[in-house]
Amino acid sequence: MPFPSPSCGTSADSQRAADGGASPSKGSTAGRPSTLSTFAAEFLGTFAQFLGGIAAGAALSAVLSGKPEWSVATDGFATNGYGELSPGGFSLLSVLIVEFVLTAIFLFVILGTTDGRAAVGFAPLAIGLTLTLIHLVSIPVSNTSVNPARSLGMAVYGGADALGQVWAFFVAPLAGAAVAGLLYSALFGADDKQIENNEETAIAAA
């Protein structure tokens, strides 16, 4: 028989209820609001970061424009770059490597210190010190990005050359972050506490 009869479907649903389970439609409905709300929150958070970066660039531009002899061409604008726009004159390859590696390290530290299995209370200190070290290492190379929003916010006001190079500070940090996430998951597995919290959120949203 190609399709189950209504009685068969009712029996199966009754058995799931007796076993404490949910029907497939209920399960997919329960998961969908959580997934969509999480995606929306992440999208809005990312969008807000880019807006914040551009707003910060506008504020910095307003401050610097108050100095009569200042100009982007001669004094720069805290932009990220390679070649002539690199503080130390480093090449594109050097900048990509530094931004990739340092972003991966930064994300690895964030994932490790905010893991539900980690000791509580050390995340702010570890993350802050790591970011400080990242700046000390990479300012001479790329002027430190490890965040595309920071790079775009400055590039918007830094001239055509800065905008032309900003792609590198999307590619390298995003690739580094992705590798860090995959590597952390492969080495340490999932955070069971976080999974349990996500499941509870999905059930509550159903």
Automatic annotation (TrEMBL):
<feature type="transmembrane region" description="Helical">
    <location>
        <begin position="43"/>
        <end position="64"/>
    </location>
</feature>
<feature type="region of interest" description="Disordered">
    <location>
        <begin position="1"/>
        <end position="32"/>
    </location>
</feature>
<dbReference type="GO" id="GO:0005886">
    <property type="term" value="C:plasma membrane"/>
</dbReference>
<dbReference type="InterPro" id="IPR034294">
    <property type="entry name" value="Aquaporin_transptr"/>
</dbReference>
<feature type="transmembrane region" description="Helical">
    <location>
        <begin position="118"/>
        <end position="142"/>
    </location>
</feature>
<feature type="transmembrane region" description="Helical">
    <location>
        <begin position="162"/>
        <end position="184"/>
    </location>
</feature>
<keyword id="KW-1133">Transmembrane helix</keyword>
<keyword id="KW-0813">Transport</keyword>
<comment type="similarity">
    <text>Belongs to the MIP/aquaporin (TC 1.A.8) family.</text>
</comment>
<dbReference type="InterPro" id="IPR000425">
    <property type="entry name" value="MIP"/>
</dbReference>
<feature type="transmembrane region" description="Helical">
    <location>
        <begin position="90"/>
        <end position="111"/>
    </location>
</feature>
<dbReference type="GO" id="GO:0015250">
    <property type="term" value="F:water channel activity"/>
</dbReference>
<keyword id="KW-0812">Transmembrane</keyword>
<dbReference type="InterPro" id="IPR023271">
    <property type="entry name" value="Aquaporin-like"/>
</dbReference>
<dbReference type="Pfam" id="PF00230">
    <property type="entry name" value="MIP"/>
</dbReference>
<keyword id="KW-0472">Membrane</keyword>
<protein>
    <submittedName>
        <fullName>Aquaporin Z</fullName>
    </submittedName>
</protein>
